[in-house]
Amino acid sequence: MLLLKWPPGPANLDWGVWILAYFGYAYIIAAAIYYVKTDK
Amino acid sequence: MNLSTQYLIILSLYFVLMLCLGFWFNRKVRSKKDYFIARGKLGPATVGFSFSATQMSGSTYMGAVGTEKVLGYNFTPAAVSSAAAPWFSYILLGNRLRKVASRTKSVTLVDIFEARYYSRTAGLICTFIMLVAFIPMIAAQLKAAGNIFEVLLGTPYLIGLFIFGGIVILYTVLGGMYAVAWTDLIQGLIMILGFAILAPVAVHAAGGFAGMHQQYAQLNPGAISFLGKMPALWVVSAFIVWGFFQIGGSPASVTRFLIPEDDKTLKKAMVYSVLFQSFIYLSATLVAIAGGVLLPTIERSDLTVPTMVSQLLPPIVGGVIIAAVLGAMMSTIDSILLLAGSLVVENIYARYMKKDVDRKKGLRIARLVTLVTGILALLVALKPPAAILWIVTMSFSLMASAFTFPFLLGLWWPRATKQAGIAGMIGGALSCVLWYILGYLKYQTLDNWIAGIWPAIFGSMVSLILFVLASRWTPPPPQEVQDIFFGDES
After folding, report:
1. Which residue in the set A12, A16, A36 is minimally distant from B213, CB to CB?
2. With 0-12 CB in 10 A as exposed, 13-18 as middle and 19+ as buried, what is B438?
């Protein structure tokens, strides 16, 4: 069902690109900082 | 003042700065251990930037941007994974490697291999594979730098090669790890500055963020999403290889884990690394997509960045970006040069020829070997034979295949044996080469592989299977080895 029809994402990019490419960087940065701060 | 002169002014300032650092740190180096790893003498920013600047070579600016221009977002999982590589490396190797290195008083990664697999043969195989991969890698970076001088500055190839090569070899020989790590930090900052200037200018010139993507989708419809241009297996393999396999594929970076004396420094270094690499790869993606719009018909996609620089930026600003590209190359060359020198001195000369050398003589030999290694690579770069280009293409995959699992499991699995380490390294390296050959026979190129499976993945899987089977079939490692490597568990 998830593969069916998604509305287009902002700036003429699909949501997959936004999530993996752009939020992906934000995630790994946040995860690295969180790991260092909490050791988890 | 013409374009080349303006570029040369910026580059001259940059080169003088690098040399000054070499001379400055020359005074700080007291022993060959200082020279090769500067243990406990460098802070988190220096270690973190050095880790990443070593991992990202000139190809990040040239080849990776060019490839991403063509493959678009099909390439992005690999880029994101690459930005996360310091994190993978730290969690899987970092602190454990640091502790073991301290216990075994290791100076090189090969020392750790030798201690873990209680075998000089394992150390020799490891040294041999690294040296076979390293000299052509240095030569290839030198050659690329010579080409930049030739294309952008109008300087004859040989003059560019000797100026660039001479400077990087000189500061490495003089200052060792101190100079390498500090120049890596400065080169890293210049790389950030370079992309911080180029990315917004390029996106703006391509019609803004949304407009750029709209045009890119029309010009290259298969590349606007993760899939469409390359097979799904290729995209997934690229994601794994560019991230996880840096563990074995980039020993010059991993050597940075031997520098800090405490875990806190190492953890902070990892954050610097992730921030730095994320910024570079995100900017590279934007520049590549903009390049796809602005230069859709450029013949050599690896010249995307230099061409955009000359078209979009004033020469003085463009000079900073050229310095960033050359800096990325320098930061890789200096680290590999130093590691190659340390392997020859520590794992060949000191081990087999002369065991007891005093501190001063040891340092002299370390410098001499680094110098000779650099000159050797420079000579190879004068006119690289075709076979060397093969090795350059394969070198990362070769090391990833040979070292990833023997390295990783050696640190985490007490049952791993000497025979497993040797079988994993040899089997991984040979099967990687075999996969390249089979791909070449089928597609007549080294860049396309059977079923889209990357050679590093195929080689590592063979290495893993051989490693586990050999460990199961052979007697367990001696207790003293297990105590050194796993004594702090339970």
Report:
1. A12
2. middle
